[in-house]
Amino acid sequence: MTLKNLAFNVIIFITCVFSIGAKAQGIKWAKDGASYYQATGGEIISITLPKNERKTIVGRSLLESASNDLARIKDFTISEDGTKVLVFTNSKKVWREETRGDYYVVDLKLNKVVRVGKDKPSASLMFAKFSPDGNKVAYVSKHNIYLDDLSTGVTKALTTDGTEKLINGTFDWVYEEEFFCRDGFRWSPDGQSIAYWQLDASNTKNFLMINNTDSIYPFIVPVEYPKVGQNPSACRIGIINIGSATTSWLKVPGDLIQNYIPRMDWIPGTNEVILQQLNRAQNVSKVYVANISSGSVANILTETDKAWIDPVKEFDWLENGKEFLWVSDKDGWNHYYRISKDGKKQTLITKGDFDVIEKSLIDEKSGYLYFIASPTNYTQKYLYKTKLSGGGKLEMVTSSIFTGTHAYDISPTGLFARHTYQSTTIPPIAEWMNFVTLNPLTMEGSVTNQLGRVKPPKNKVEFFKVTTEDGVVIDGWMKKPDNFDQTKKYPVVFYIYGEPWGQTVTDTYGVANNQLYAGDMAKDGYIYVSIDNRGTPAPRGREWRKSIFQKIGTLNIRDQAMAAKKVLEFPYVDKSRVAVWGWSGGGSSTLNLLFQYPEIFKTGIAVAAVANQLTYDNIYQERYMGSPLQSKEAYIKGSPITYAKNLQGNLLLIHGTGDDNVHYQNAELLINELIKNKKVFQMMSYPNRTHAINEGQGTSEHLALTYTQFLQKNCPPGGK
Question: What gap in Å lies between CA 235 and CA 31, rounded to an integer?
Fold first, then answer.
């Protein structure tokens, strides 16, 4: 039900990929913080700031001499001593991301290239990474962990028990989808050990999809998928002794099946491992520190919540491993705390009635934490700083004259940064800046200079607020038709997501673009609107975000409907032409709005929707709705299928039969209910297409035409 793999409007994609082998994240800064690495034109270069001095690190001819695939570099990493480069290529998808492929080591001293795992099948390696000394490479293949010794050329199996269902060093479908876990092993700081996840999915049932088109006889496509109420895979953490290739298991308290371990890493400079454990209900978070020599495990931090607790993104360390940063909303707002390694000392760093959105830089030298927040406008993002010691005032770093959404990729030493700025009227523009002085490196490339060349759109997106009859203040945006005439009435199309993974009302460029509309909505005469209900991840505090607990399909739907009623009071809105559409969780919300509030919404287009919440995966649905054993009534009450009998308007249901995320089963269950109640609707199924419905020639274009023709027929455009 999440939006993590879609490319429409506002996409919420939070990554926890910890090594190469997946989509590259951000700038590859060098350790000195004054230069960065880049793959371009089939070679790898370094660029030194502030003068952009370029130096070739790995030439194209050297790479091509080893393999033609190396001309297409997917990703790369540099060894700690800078003498070797690990290159990832020939990448293949594993569910969402291209995390499987081939790896090569480029020895810069010897000027040679060696393939990693040369005895393994092509494109079968995952998450390869150097040992701390750069002399070895560990990787996953076929659910086992292997080691290549670069000095001897010898390959050693570090685990041998991996099977289709016993997963070493990576994860099952649901851990990847809902916890963003992909890379499942970590080198110890001394290079003598590897800590890794092992998941036993032997009792997890396969959901069977049928492929009817790729051969004369159909065949089954199994997906390892734990539905709501079904037990997750058993999870434990093993420590491999590199010398003996033997594993010892951390004695983490609690049942292996009824608890999750979404995060784990080594504590810098030690032989200790830190991990976060969430109970099955995900409302108790425990942090454990384990000493691999003694095997002792200590619970240093416990946090509980009446709703749920999110996994920490990563462990960030201070004072050479003596303290770490921790995010919590226990005081009602998302804030950073610094926690001592034994958990006995906890210091609030950020303080106030605002949410920290994400960390940008820990600058221990100057004693500041830099982070993104937006205390006064929940649709925007700015850079702030405060003292790492706690108790400091909140200082805005971003210039207040640039209203909108800002992002910063700051070098690890805080010397330079790449600053990106955008808003609904300004396409993303970027500048390199001296982060010490906060001045651009060149005036020609500054944000100020580039703004002078931006032509603002004639038809701007307008932000608005409405207060519903329940007293809830709702943020929204509206894009009016071109040549808008306030004396006429226009049809309105609502775009919705509405669940805890999607904020649609953001001050970002293109936020009001409808990628599914084959044409120009504003030119054709539609009012386009989106609003954020309670439960969406706007930075408005814990109560806003977590009030949706056990109320997906009810509270969020009422907020949307009550806000829509306010929009329909605008004199230029035609109440007889009101449409709503959404994808995934937004598709579910669309169905619920159409079924629960037929007096408001006349037309709905639901793409890849969950019709019955009891069919979705256990981690996502149980996190936000509780266990179905205790709250089955809430599941039923929030599911669109419960209200299908109320359909009065026009419905277009769209689904891919190869959707491994929201199964096509949802469409068929809903179709049966609609048929039973003699409700006429339209349906478009896409054979073997996934949750993204973008595979195959002509698919995206066909989808857009289907969407557009249905909308124009049932909610005609233009002012009247």
Answer: 35
Largest CA distance in the chain: 81
Question: What's the rounded Cα separation, in Å, for the pair 76 and 63?
Answer: 12
Distance CA 150, CA 62 (A): 18
Q: Which among 612, 584, 562, 595 is positioned nearest to 497, based on CA atoms?
A: 584
Q: Are 234 and 166 in contact (CB under 8 A)?
A: no
pLDDT tens digit sequence for 34-56: 999 999 999 999 999 999 999 99
Q: Taking the domains of the chain in order of start, what are their residue ranges? A: 357-423+426-455, 461-714
The pLDDT confidence band at residue 25, using thresholds 50, 70 and 90, is low
Q: Over the stretch 129-163, which tens digit does the pLDDT of each residue have?
A: 999 999 999 999 999 999 999 999 999 999 999 99
Chain centroid, CA 406 distance in Å: 18
Element (H, E) at 710: helix 699-714
Residue 549 one-letter amino acid: F
Cβ-contact 19, 78 below 8 angstroms = no
Residues 6+ apart with CB under 8 A from 184: 127, 140, 167, 168, 169, 170, 171, 196, 197
3-class state of residue 343 by DSSP: coil
Burial group, residue 698, by CB count within 10 angstroms (0-12, 13-18, 19+) = exposed
Which residue type does 534 have? R
Does CATH number 3.40.640.10 belong to domain 461-714?
A: no
